[in-house]
Design goal:
Elements: E1 3-6, H1 8-20, E2 24-28, H2 31-37, E3 41-45, H3 48-58, E4 63-67, H4 72-81, E5 85-88, H5 100-107, E6 112-114, H6 123-126, E7 133-134, H7 144-158
Length: about 160
């Protein structure tokens, strides 16, 4: 499944067209902005307070995502507070050489996102770590042609779902 993380500034304009194409829309920041746009959920920092507040505001029907950078501690607290997914900086520090994505995927059931944009060349390193979702390279936003090229390359590399 594809998803899109958007700024509250663009959420109202982007949500309906994206959802019509089967793309879930997450709004960064405040649950009220996600609700106003009719988005599928909200993406917040992985502080216990923010995640708990977002979970309460979104109810059971809305998604809550949390960005934990490369902190295992924040990730676990966010999961306990009700996050539906945890986003990581997969290029951040690792503990004893174990990448955070691998650790999370092996230990936890809550999905994780490799949140730092992933260049196609880095997929050979990232995919064995078993992320549930990846963030494509930012170059895909340069033009429609770049988006088609990058998405096609990713689709081919990831194989059938």
């Amino acid at each position: 499944m594809a998803s899109l993380l958007v700024s509250p500034i663009f959420a109202k304009d982007v949500t309906a067209p994206a959802q019509e194409r089967g793309v879930a829309v997450m709004v960064s920041g405040e649950p009220r902005d996600a609700a106003r746009a009719g988005a599928d959920g909200v993406h917040v920092s992985a502080s216990t307070e923010e995640v708990a507040a977002a979970r309460q505001a979104m109810g059971k029907a809305g998604f809550v995502g949390a960005y934990a950078a490369s902190s295992r501690h924040l990730a676990m607290e966010a999961a306990e507070a009700g996050a539906d997914y945890i986003a990581f900086d997969q290029n951040g520090a690792s503990v004893a050489g174990e990448p955070i994505i691998r650790w999370w995927s092996d230990m936890m059931e809550i999905p994780c996102v490799a949140f730092t944009p992933v260049e196609l060349e880095a997929l050979d390193i990232l995919l064995p770590q078993k992320p549930d979702f990846i963030r494509p390279p930012d170059a895909m936003w340069q033009s429609a042609e770049d988006a088609r090229r990058i998405v096609a390359a990713l689709t081919q590399r990831l194989g059938p779902t």
